[in-house]
């Protein structure tokens, strides 16, 4: 039978397309830390009324955008310090929430505590990297 392939050879046609993927900038990563930890803290607050925190998403986002629009590194450094402060506050709230969540006798609370610990470790790496690259 003619025109039917035997399947021993295959041809793949691939094309490349430009995509708008941003590079992971320090300011974007710091904002991501604040955003993710705040989201988990909101969900965790439903499990216990002892979990108290302030939502600093807007403040962190404003600082991230200011850093992106700054003309020079001398303008960026003070804004980076503010963004690092906001990230530190959020990480402190998350650390306090982890201890509270582990005291609850709820498996869902323990699961959220593990998630917070995971993102806290990643956040520590981002903060350390930013301090080394920008402030030192």
Q: Spans with pLDDT under 50 lasting ≥5 residues?
A: none
Distance between the termini: 72 Å
Structural class: mainly alpha
What's the total helix number? 4
Name the beta content range: under 5%
> What is the gyration radius calculated from CA atoms?
22 Å
Helix percentage = 55-70%
Short account of what is shown:
By secondary structure, the protein is mainly α.
Note down, in words, how this protein is organized.
By secondary structure, the chain is mostly helical. The chain contains 4 helices and no strands. The chain has helices at residues 26-45, 57-69, 73-103, 107-135. The chain is flat, with a radius of gyration of 22 Å. It starts with 25 loop residues before the first helix and ends with a helix. The mean pLDDT is 91.
Topology summary:
Elements (H helix, E strand, L loop, with lengths): L25 H20 L11 H13 L3 H31 L3 H29 L1
Write a concise keyword list for the protein shown above.
single chain; 136 residues; mainly alpha; 4 helices
């Amino acid at each position: 039978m003619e025109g039917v392939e035997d399947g021993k050879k295959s041809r793949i046609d691939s094309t490349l397309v430009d995509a708008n993927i941003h590079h992971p900038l320090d300011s974007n990563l710091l904002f991501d830390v604040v955003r993710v930890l705040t989201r988990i803290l909101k969900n965790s607050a439903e499990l216990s009324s002892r979990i108290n925190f302030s939502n600093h998403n807007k403040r962190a986002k404003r600082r991230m955008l200011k850093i992106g629009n700054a003309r020079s590194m001398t303008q960026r450094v003070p804004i980076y310090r503010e963004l690092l402060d906001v990230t530190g506050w959020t990480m402190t709230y998350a650390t306090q929430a982890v201890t509270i969540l582990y005291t609850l006798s709820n498996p869902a609370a323990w699961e959220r505590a593990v998630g917070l610990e995971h993102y806290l470790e990643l956040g520590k790496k981002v903060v350390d990297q930013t301090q080394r690259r920008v402030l030192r």
